[in-house]
Automatic annotation (TrEMBL):
<feature type="transmembrane region" description="Helical">
    <location>
        <begin position="246"/>
        <end position="266"/>
    </location>
</feature>
<feature type="transmembrane region" description="Helical">
    <location>
        <begin position="80"/>
        <end position="98"/>
    </location>
</feature>
<protein>
    <submittedName>
        <fullName>MFS general substrate transporter</fullName>
    </submittedName>
</protein>
<dbReference type="InterPro" id="IPR036259">
    <property type="entry name" value="MFS_trans_sf"/>
</dbReference>
<dbReference type="GO" id="GO:0016020">
    <property type="term" value="C:membrane"/>
</dbReference>
<feature type="transmembrane region" description="Helical">
    <location>
        <begin position="413"/>
        <end position="436"/>
    </location>
</feature>
<feature type="transmembrane region" description="Helical">
    <location>
        <begin position="12"/>
        <end position="33"/>
    </location>
</feature>
<keyword id="KW-0472">Membrane</keyword>
<dbReference type="InterPro" id="IPR011701">
    <property type="entry name" value="MFS"/>
</dbReference>
<feature type="transmembrane region" description="Helical">
    <location>
        <begin position="310"/>
        <end position="326"/>
    </location>
</feature>
<feature type="transmembrane region" description="Helical">
    <location>
        <begin position="173"/>
        <end position="196"/>
    </location>
</feature>
<dbReference type="Pfam" id="PF07690">
    <property type="entry name" value="MFS_1"/>
</dbReference>
<feature type="transmembrane region" description="Helical">
    <location>
        <begin position="53"/>
        <end position="73"/>
    </location>
</feature>
<keyword id="KW-0812">Transmembrane</keyword>
<feature type="transmembrane region" description="Helical">
    <location>
        <begin position="140"/>
        <end position="161"/>
    </location>
</feature>
<keyword id="KW-1133">Transmembrane helix</keyword>
<dbReference type="GO" id="GO:0022857">
    <property type="term" value="F:transmembrane transporter activity"/>
</dbReference>
Length: 439
């Protein structure tokens, strides 16, 4: 049919570019966790909680600039803006590879956080503009698996690139930053020639195809094609950010993000302490991401086909809680002198945490995106959810203490259990509020 052919054309033009951008951002975000066990700490004279500080200086600008960066989408073309911010964090990642001091690393990670802040809200908003409500979720879940590919590929890339140790006088961990940053830089330049505009400005569609696209979008949600030139006031922003339809899912997204950020930053270290060599630890991160990716795609597809969201989001929260509980329960079985004990159970806990996160978060963001009305609400809503959830980065960076590495990060695992429970409660209240309103 004409609509099916149109969707295929939109999919092929939009999804690959945004998917690749998400893979790249996740690799450049996760690589510090991989290189931590490859000599970076020693080379930069990092001690005590210096690594945690490096995580914090990335997270703070990432959180604070989500909304301002998203608002820039009303002023600049989304495709151009995405290329610009990718260029910026690519250069900063290269800088992390050449810096000779810990303070230089902090500056580079700060800049990566500044530039990366706008990517996911921009991509989420842009995708949301092209699809009807029950076409969007499976595509957003596919986009979201970029984090899984990036996480898995980051471990593999680190495993391969550290073998370049001493080439050109650079340590292996430096080559990880250098090569990955260079690839981001080149992709940013290439993406300038593959610009993705808003639907009404699309040039890759024929006039009759554009007319059909705009017609079907208007029939699905007339509020979506709106007020590009009307001002977005401080009052508009505040009302959206504080609405219960944003605040309750934000609490659940925050709980999800603690799971993601903790695994990204500390999974290689935990695996290293389970008795694997640094190379084995990098490789063992891959199956965790791949299995979680499968469940992410499956849940996103089923959610669209069945036209329901809540059961999948709730199930994801429960699975994550079980993973955290397994990790916390393992703490008392760990030999604190070696860090060994309950290897298989702790590895299984990682699978459960990431599977639950992967099922829950993309459906939750898509669900809220469908509920909000108009572009102004959606720009602010996506930025609030994604930016506010990044507070999870700060919690994980400050709950996983270096001194607790050998005993299983007891404080971090306990924090994971607590916020997972909070996330489940928030999702139930959100669903209850929508059910009551629909009545």
């Amino acid at each position: 049919s004409l609509e099916r052919a149109l969707l295929w054309k939109v999919d092929l033009h939009i999804l690959p570019l945004l998917f690749l951008a998400y893979i790249i951002t996740f690799i450049d975000r996760a690589n510090i966790g991989n290189v931590k066990i490859e000599g970076m700490l020693t080379n930069l004279d990092m001690v005590d909680n210096d690594y945690n500080t490096a995580l914090n200086v990335y997270a703070v600008p990432f959180i604070l600039l989500e909304l301002p960066s998203s608002l820039a989408l009303r002023r600049y073309r989304p495709g151009n803006y995405i290329a610009f911010i990718m260029f910026g964090w690519g250069v900063a990642t290269i800088g992390a590879g050449v810096t000779r001091s810990y303070s230089g690393l902090l500056v580079c990670r700060f800049l990566v956080g500044c530039f990366e802040a706008g990517l996911i809200p921009a991509c989420s908003f842009l995708m949301n503009q092209y699809y009807k409500k029950f076409e969007f979720q499976r595509r957003y879940s596919f986009f979201f698996t970029g984090s899984h590919i990036g996480g898995a590929f980051s471990g593999f890339l680190t495993y391969a690139l550290v073998k370049m140790n001493n080439i050109g006088g650079y340590a292996g961990w430096r080559w990880v930053f250098l090569i990955e940053g260079l690839f981001t830089f080149l992709f940013a330049i290439a993406s300038l020639f593959l610009i993705i505009p808003l639907p009404e400005h699309s040039t890759f569609l024929k006039p009759e195809e554009k007319t059909l696209l705009l017609k079907r979008l208007a029939e699905d949600d007339a509020s979506n094609i709106d007020e590009v030139k009307t001002p977005l006031t401080i009052n508009d922003i505040f009302k959206t950010m504080t609405h219960w339809k944003v605040v309750l899912p934000l609490l659940a997204c925050f709980a999800c993000n603690i799971a993601a950020s903790a695994l990204t930053a500390f999974q290689p270290t935990v695996l290293n302490n389970l008795g694997y060599t640094s190379s084995q630890a990098q490789i063992h991160t891959i199956p965790v991401y791949m299995v979680a990716m499968f469940f992410c795609l499956l849940a996103g597809y089923l959610s669209d086909v069945t036209h329901i969201r809540f059961p999948y989001v709730l199930l994801g929260g429960i699975i994550t809680l079980l993973g955290w509980a397994l990790e916390l329960g393992a703490v008392k079985h760990i030999d604190i002198s070696t860090g060994l004990g309950w290897l298989h159970q702790r590895y299984a806990g990682m699978f459960l945490i990431l599977i639950g996160f992967s099922v829950q978060l993309p459906i939750l963001i898509g669900w809220v995106g469908n509920i909000l009305k108009g572009r102004k609400q959606r720009i602010v809503g996506f930025a609030t959810l994604i930016g506010g959830s990044q507070l999870g980065n700060l919690v994980s960076a400050n709950a996983f203490f270096t001194r607790q590495e050998k005993c299983g990060y007891k404080t971090g695992m306990a924090a994971g259990v607590g916020v997972a429970v909070m996330g489940i409660v928030a999702v139930c209240l959100f669903f209850g509020g929508l059910w009551w309103e629909n009545r």
